[in-house]
Design brief:
alpha+beta; four-stranded antiparallel β-sheet; three-stranded antiparallel β-sheet; 13 helices; 11 strands; magnesium; RNA-directed DNA polymerase activity; metal-binding; antiviral defense; EC 2.7.7.49
Length: 309
């Protein structure tokens, strides 16, 4: 990498001004919390300043051509989404769900540079230092540098860092006639055949220890074994016993109730209507036949009114 990694030089007067900016970059974040999905806990989001965000985007756009992303990765990848991820597993009878513990915050500069070396990408010490400060966030002065949830560069870096892990785990799954996919920190392994006695969680943690020296770990409290006897889901999407995708009965009832409230003028808040519109668009994308069902129940005209308001 050469100064300043071909960043738009209009942003900086000279090399010194760029270096001064880089060294202070880990502190250029605004922190706030958002609720976690299906949890009472909150997730810490660290949002870089507009100027740092510009630099992060510029640098990651230049580096991304050299950073491979595995085909098993479905988050933050163009033309892949949670529906594509769920589609992979819809014919499986057995599903294993695994989750990483504090995924982004577990990724440190050394992990990135080790993975770059594995891909024959070598950087000088000064380049490593600059990239560490540009891409990684420091919560406090004495805190370690770590990947932030909120930086535009973090999704690409996290997917690249997991490339070798994804490849090794995918090979292991193929060996045992299983399907593997990863959506950010959400791992899904499934099969038509019973495979739970193979102790995949331990194999996964062994691979993580081997690749990341124990820095990235599974959240064992979130490990789930799912079968046809119970609700099977992948990234929030239900797998039905007839090998289709569904938003689930509970979500369907909730949407039906909201449509009814809209019909009788009990749902008239603009934000609530906008939220319903988004929820319906998502539901119809995951489960297209729902649009037909709701149209029969409430009429096409009412649905059109909701979706067009």
């Amino acid at each position: 990498m050469s100064y300043p990694t071909n960043i738009n030089q209009q942003k900086f007067k000279n090399k010194k001004s760029f270096l001064d900016f880089a060294y202070s970059a880990p502190y250029k974040y605004k922190n706030y919390y958002i609720p976690k999905r299906n949890s009472t806990q909150k997730r810490l989001i660290s949002q870089p300043t507009a100027e740092l965000k510009f630099v992060q985007k510029d640098v990651i756009n230049q580096l991304s051509a050299f950073l491979p992303i595995h085909n098993c990765a479905y988050a933050y990848v163009k033309n892949r989404n949670i529906k594509d991820n769920a589609e992979l597993h819809r014919h499986s009878n057995y599903v294993l769900k695994l989750d990483f513990k504090h995924f982004f915050h577990s990724i440190r500069p050394k992990i990135l540079f080790n993975q770059l070396e594995h891909h024959q990408i070598k950087l000088s010490e000064i380049d490593q230092t600059i990239l560490s400060f540009i891409f990684f966030w420091r919560e406090k002065k004495d805190s370690p540098l770590k990947l932030s949830i909120g930086a535009p560069s973090s999704p690409v870096l996290s997917n690249f860092i997991m490339y070798r892990f994804d490849e090794m785990l995918n090979q292991l799954c193929e060996k045992h006639q299983c399907i593997y996919s990863r959506y950010a920190d959400d791992i899904t392994i499934s099969s038509k055949y019973h495979f739970y006695d193979l102790n995949f969680p331990q194999h996964v943690q062994n691979l993580l220890d081997q690749e990341f020296q124990g820095k990235i770990k599974l959240n064992t409290q979130k490990t789930k074994y799912l079968t046809r006897k119970h609700r099977r889901f992948v990234t929030g999407i239900t797998l039905t016993n007839d090998a289709k995708l569904s938003i689930g009965r509970q979500q369907k009832r909730l949407l039906s109730a909201k449509i009814h409230h809209f019909k009788i003028n009990k749902l008239n808040d603009e934000q609530q209507i906008l939220s319903l519109k988004g929820q319906l668009a998502f539901a119809f994308y995951i489960q297209p036949e729902l649009k037909v069902q709701f149209s029969r129940k409430y009429g096409e005209e009412l649905l059109h009114k909701i979706m067009s308001d």
